[in-house]
Amino acid sequence: MLSFVFRRFISMIVTLWLIITVTFFLMHAVPGSPFEKEGKALNETVAQNLNAYYNLDKPLFVQYGLYLQKLVQFDLGPSTANSADTVNKMIARGFPVSFQLGLIAVLFAIISGVGLGVIAALRHNRLIDYAAMIIAVLGISIPSFVVAPLLIKYLAVEWKLLPTATWGSWQHVVMPALALAFGPIAIIARLTRTNMLEVLTQEYIETAKAKGLKPATIVIKHALRNAILPVVTLLGALIANVLTGSFVIEKIFAIPGMGKYFVAGIINRDYSVIMGTTVFYSALLIFLMFVVDVLYGIIDPRIKLHRKESEG
Amino acid sequence: MIVSDDLFIPMRKDNLNSEAIVRPQLTFWQGAWQRLKGNKLALMGLVIIIVLGVMATIGPMISGHEYSKQSIIMKNKAPSGTYWFGTDDFGRDVFTRVWYGARISLFVGFMAALIDFFIGVLYGGIAGYMGGRVDNIMMRFVDILYGLPYLLVVILLMVVMGPGLGTIIIALSATGWIGMARTVRGQVLQMKNSEYVLAAKTMGAKPFYIIRKHLLPNTIGIIIVYVTLSVPSAIFGEAFLSFLGLGVQAPMASWGVMANDGLSTILSGHWWRLFFPAFFISLTMLAFNVLGDGLRDAFDPKARR
């Protein structure tokens, strides 16, 4: 177990380093200077000072070394579009909001997705099963940026139940979290249903029934614990989905989260912000995948914590 | 016990035919098609895709309007006899633009799926067939890419390469082939060690023959399903990029660009500007998804549930 965690940790660091390197050289492969805007040439001295401030006057590998050196100290550098702001400050401002929204969306997706899947499996081929599967197909087909305007149109504009946009109270969280969770709910519900159907036909469930256990105990303690494993495997991808999906949702609902800074960074061609966000989110995601892998061993003690060869 | 002669009458000739195969033999494709035909939902998906394809081809021509022609007096008109889906804030015909956008969105979807197919099958096939160290190194690289939030990578590539139709396809395929490679590799690895491949090897079949005659036909079902499902994900990716302002540039339009432009209409009430592109994105995704599910059942009847 410990050696697995250690090996997994090392590969995590290597992956992260690769991402940082590729991101760095990709961003520096962009032609032109980040300070030239729409053909407006800068004053010679101003340009020189700016280049010196952002270390752009040094050779590429020196810049790379300096960037890494700062990264180790968790410093993502200043914004190229606005020298008074740093990427760290933007993350400090935006990320808590995105994190809150993402966490609520992920929790909501897991709870309702698993719930829907279990109910559908228990009522296999009945009305509620079909209804759940229709929801699942719609959830996979309808993009979040279509769900979001629909929610605003009905819940906020027509029926005036919730505030249309921005951030603040709990009412503000409901619609973006719902829009963000809609797709993941569908994916989780489908997966849970398939696995539940498989697990429910197994002999140990029969045994549990024969022993006279309560149906609720059988479902929760015996069936679900096995059926939920593939959902845990999916968690990493799911979180990535929610994190990036949140860029668009934050834009639609005018939420001051990471997405706002990232989209502004794209529009202003603010390279250090784009780079910093990519590195930060990748690091976060790789770390979460690591946690999920370790969790997996705790939920299912049978799993040998080596590389799973059979898993394509 | 009396053994009489009548116990030794030869068996009647016609019983010898009992081994004959009377029902028509189905090839792999015929069997799959027959199972797919039985699946109404999947057939509906296929029909929708064909209709969308036809409309994308002829749609922009039958309305009598130009997709990029602006007209200030005609702006934000509701759907009517002349403007079937209404007009947008520049007075452009939404019907023409929806089908023009369909061309772009479907083109991006199919091209990205095609590139994913070539790279993914080649990469996964080689890794799976070679096995051992080659497989280990190739798959370690894929694992690293797989762990990344793919849309972030796509956005990064788009920023570096600049917006445009070609770069969207390149950026989407740069990450899209990974899933395909993993699937193909898993399948090839599993089949490579099966008895019938061993039998073929024992009889002296060459590697290329084994790949062509044994490995490929047994993987093709999964590959087709995967390609079908990667079309909607590429269309979604393109729409997502358009939402962030990295999509195709005006006056070109894709469904994502149009939906993004139409967002402001939630409050103004010009619902048609958002509704039609959003509806067709969802319909396309739905059609490809149900077709993909149907194909999966058709190619792999054992896995059906």
TrEMBL record, chain A:
The chain crosses the membrane at residues 9-30, 99-122, 134-157, 169-189, 227-249, 279-299. One of its GO terms (cellular component) is plasma membrane. InterPro entries: BPD_transp_1_N, MetI-like, MetI-like_sf. SUPFAM superfamilies: MetI-like. Gene3D superfamilies: MetI-like. One of its GO terms (biological process) is transmembrane transport. It is found in: Cell membrane. It comes from the Bacteria. The keyword Cell membrane applies. Keywords: Cell membrane, Membrane, Transmembrane, Transmembrane helix, Transport. It is a multi-pass membrane protein. PANTHER family: DIPEPTIDE TRANSPORT SYSTEM PERMEASE PROTEIN DPPB-RELATED (PTHR43163). Belongs to the binding-protein-dependent transport system permease family. This is Dipeptide transport system permease protein DppB. The gene is dppB.
From TrEMBL, chain B:
Residues 102-292 form the ABC transmembrane type-1 domain. GO terms for biological process: transmembrane transport. It is a multi-pass membrane protein. It comes from the Bacteria. SUPFAM superfamilies: MetI-like. InterPro entries: BP-dependent_transpt_permease, MetI-like, MetI-like_sf, OppC_N. GO terms for cellular component: plasma membrane. CDD domains: TM_PBP2. It is found in: Cell membrane. Keywords: Cell membrane, Membrane, Transmembrane, Transmembrane helix, Transport. Pfam families: BPD_transp_1, OppC_N. The chain crosses the membrane at residues 41-62, 104-129, 215-235, 271-291. The keyword Ubl conjugation does not apply. Belongs to the binding-protein-dependent transport system permease family. This is Dipeptide transport system permease protein DppC. It comes from Brevibacillus parabrevis. The gene is dppC_2.
